[in-house]
Amino acid sequence: MGIPFCRALTIARAAGQEASALAGHVLLYPSGMSPERWPLPAPDCDHSADAAPHTPVLLLHGLFDNRAVFSRMRRSLNSHGWEHVHALNYNPVTVDLREAAELFGRHVLHTREVYGGERVAVIGHSLGGLIARYYVQRLGGDEHVHTAVTLATPHEGTLSARLIHPLPISRQLLPGSSVFRELSAPAPGCTTRFVVFRGEHDPLILPQRSAALRHPDLWAENVLVLGSGHVTLPVHRTVITQVREVLTGPQLGTMDGPIQLTA
């Protein structure tokens, strides 16, 4: 009796955190509806003298969302010395995953041009993480992205995509779709480090094991966040701290098993 009760209590606590995170995000959502103004490259500018202490970071939101989902994480990065953090809005109703990845790639190249050619880091939530992975793995983006952090991303698809069946992108998110067949193909020589955060009680990724990234050619670390769900991860204090450490830490390589973070 004790074990089922404890598990029920953990799930209830995770649901409460999800509800709180969702409520906070609903309040912030209007602030992220307008596209962000991106800086223009300065002609004939020498960036070597005034280089920032950290490489640029690009943020990519999930389905039916916008850049406001990263408000807390962005403030944290800014306050800890990341001067060049930018977010991209996209419309999944009008573009499919491949087109979104191509669009994202153009922003990556623009960012490198603006900041003197530095490779960038990417943080993607949910579908945003999958778009970033597709760009890195299938469109040559590993040349431009040194680290890709994904939060609550369905790396092997999710059965919950059936709930959004009218959208073309819903078919691409189902396990076994053409997109996931492409992503399961060999990716020799990929130089991007992937760090994958997944919630222990994510209600939107079914089955939940699909939130882990398992590919023999990718440099991936899977981090299980205990007691957490889907919407919670971008505002999770421990996750935000860990993301900062990932962006500044050494290249650790593929882990034998998942790291576990407590809520």
How would you sum up this structure, described in words?
Strand 1, helix 2 and strand 2 (85-88) form a beta-alpha-beta unit. Helix 3 packs across helix 4. This protein has a 7-stranded parallel sheet with strand order 2-1-3-4-5-6-7, with helices on both faces. The longest helix has 27 residues, at 2-28. The chain has 263 residues and is an alpha/beta fold. Mean pLDDT is 85; it is low at 251-258. It is built from 7 helices and 7 strands; from the N terminus they run H-E-H-E-H-E-H-E-H-H-E-E-H-E.
Concise overview:
The chain is an alpha/beta fold and 263 residues long. It has helices at 2-28, 71-79, 97-114, 127-138, 168-172, 178-183, 237-248, and strands at residues 57-60, 85-88, 120-125, 145-151, 193-199, 219-225, 259-261.
Question: Can you tag this structure with a few keywords?
Answer:
single chain, 263 residues, alpha/beta, 34% helix
Write the layout of secondary structure elements.
Elements: H1 2-28, E1 57-60, H2 71-79, E2 85-88, H3 97-114, E3 120-125, H4 127-138, E4 145-151, H5 168-172, H6 178-183, E5 193-199, E6 219-225, H7 237-248, E7 259-261
Parallel strand pairs: 1-2, 1-3, 3-4, 4-5, 5-6, 6-7
Backbone CA Rg: 18 Å
Oligomer: single chain
Number of helices: 7
**Structural class, from secondary structure content?**
alpha/beta
- Give the strand order of the largest sheet, numbering strands 1, 2, ... along the chain: 2-1-3-4-5-6-7
Binned, the helix content reads: 25-40%
- In terms of DSSP E residues, the strand content is 5-15%
Average pLDDT figure = 85
The biggest beta sheet, please? 7 strands, parallel
Shape type: globular
Question: How are helices and strands ordered from N to C?
Answer: HEHEHEHEHHEEHE
Q: Terminal Cα separation, in Å?
A: 24 Å
User: Spans with pLDDT under 50 lasting ≥5 residues?
Assistant: 251-258
Number of strands: 7
